[in-house]
């Protein structure tokens, strides 16, 4: 009789531990899913920024090309040539800055993509672990129900004696 009570208490404790572990893992999964969503949004944002910067680089390169052509044609006009040269220099600096920003955005995009992959793997692992815990919990619940039934049957037999 005492062994049955001990076993029931042990099964209850195990069931409670399993339930709390499932809740904890579900919380972790939810947190990781939120982090994953944030990373995906950051990827989308960086991709858009990357596209905008690439367009700006193309536009600036076209302007640089146009200004170089205009500068070579305007050598007869010294003052105009100096102005165009200064403007060309500024545009080249802007193009270099845009190129540097583009490289930084690409690097951030790559890092974010790597992190997103990592979090996706982590979410999958936690979901598997959660499924295992849920399976154990269901198994323990069945065992608990069986022991509960066995106890009731045993009590009924004792009462009939």
From TrEMBL:
Endpoints of the signal sequence: none
Record-linked InterPro entries: Tropomyosin
Residue span of region Disordered: 1-24
UniProt keyword terms in alphabetical order: Coiled coil
Native source species: Corynascus novoguineensis
The name this protein goes by in its record: Tropomyosin
